[in-house]
What does this fold into?
Amino acid sequence: MKIAVCVKQVPDTWAEKALKAADSTLDRDAADGVMNELDEYAVEEALKLTEAHGGEVVVVTMGPERAGETVRKALSMGADSGVHLVDETLHGSDALATSYALAEVLKDRGFDLVMFGSESTDARMSVVPAMVAERLGIAQLTFAQKVEVSGPTVTIQRATETGYDTVEAQTPAVVSVVEKINEPRYPSFKGIMAAKKKPVETLSVSDAGLDAARLGLSAAWSQVEDFAARPPKAAGTIVVDEGDGGAKLAGFLAEQKFI
Amino acid sequence: MMLFTPEHDQFRKSVRKLVEDEINPYCDEWEEAEIFPAHELFPKLGAIGAFGLEYDPEYGGGGADHSFTTVLAEELGRADCGGVPMAIAVQAGMATPALARYGSDELKREFLVPTLAGDLVCSIAVSEPGAGSDVAGITTRARRDGDDWVINGRKMWITTGTQSDWICLLARTSDEGGYQGMSMIIVPTSSPGFSVGRKIKKMGNNSSDTAELVLDDVRVPVRHTIGEEGRGFQMQMSQFQDERLWISYMAVTGARRAIDRTLEYLQLREAFGKPLLANQYIQYTIAELVAEIDIVQGFLHHTAERYVAGEDVTRAATVAKLNSGRLSRKVADACVQFHGGMGYAEEMWVARYYRDCRLGSIGGGADEVMLRIITMLEGMGRP
It folds into this structure.
């Protein structure tokens, strides 16, 4: 089984994030870059599947040169090889452009599964997996909390608000995962050293045969016109309990239309 | 810095994440219980290769040089308690080096392989009720009976002693006395006659179970002897060098983290209309401590580099142990003082740190033993 896992480098989850004044895009240098946490679960699941069924895991990323660290991390967890799409033209790409670029890189490589974390912690749109599936013309199984593969059939438990749905498709298919699915492994010393020798293919926009006019900030379907810092928190309301605290709280919540 | 490569940084991140996810959230609970679940935690450390970094890959080791041990120990030193890192250090750097260096193939397959995986838990058993830093004073005796050793004695201060699967025991195997006639023997704790005398209540490092062990006619095969019979003292001396470096690495990063946490507090806590940190006395005191931490850490990195290059670092490990132990005591004292009443309360991390780091000047050879070694190395004679 050949599995692609798309990973994204994002600013450290706990870091203060900032936009750049020049073009209103995320300031990626302002914080340490880490692998998007949910993508770690996707890598782990892909590794588990190939450990059980054989095959290989190829990690794919799109991002500046520094995003190569994220490919390296996935390789140190156990992925076999990497593909890194890196080009100035990609800067500021929106979800539509990202899905276009990823789909072009992924197609014709014979993947049985293309896996994603269900969202990134920076943009949090959760749309790229679905867009990539659509562009590749293959099934999408999203928000998986469990994945099983049997021959050409892939079955997932799709996490819902109340439980889960069982959804099934034929490979090739796109699968996005939620954090319930597993516990990602920590890269081991041996994994880290082995990753040094694993191949990473670096592609520019032209290497990948992409149309530059469809990429980057200028091609984005939305524009950030202006931004401002979040206003400071307003003072809260203190409810003093004089034996009627419960009723007062309920009254407050009703007033705010929470209940 | 030549010593650390991007691979070191990645391994550092791995260990840091493991400490944050698998150790720190449970420290309070384990401190309270005065034990941590070694058989649950150690396989997770085994999976990242923490127990056998420098050992032969043939036996599950990493084949790394010592600089990766530096990274591992530095990150463990940043944990929220001292007890658990101490137990990890014992398994990785104190109870297994002699086995890995001098043990037979058979012995390594039986004990080293599962220990590096974290499936077995081990302890180093050298100190006795009557002999601690003065190793020559041990009296535990192994007498030969056919193909077996029959062992009698008591061992004291044994880290992870109530839950170990085997101990690396130093015992007398002849009547020569002094530094002669000691051997290192692997004793499975399931052996008849082996028992835990008591779990020792301590001032700090409470998450680690420390025990007095009793060996009453314990019979183990002679093939359990590590390396050459009668060379136990020398093996333990070389094992001590690793131990002292381990303790020093952990002490320095522990001290740095304590300073960082104290700085956070001092920025938030206000007195007399401004943050405590605005007080120049406090600023300078911390600046002095930070400067000392930098020096000891730089010395340790230099020592690690020399160790990697194959040089003898006995003296440097001794100097580092002496200084890092004393420095962390000074740091802990300042942290408690600047936290005021909160520094004296058990609900903050400071009190635990103050108690835990006190061991740095005692365990692995007391400060006075370090001074004794330096005295001898300086040619002043035997104190």
Summary: The mean pLDDT of chain B is 95. The domain at 122-230 of chain B is CATH 2.40.110.10 (Butyryl-CoA Dehydrogenase, subunit A; domain 2). Chain B touches chain A through 18 residues (CB under 8 Å).
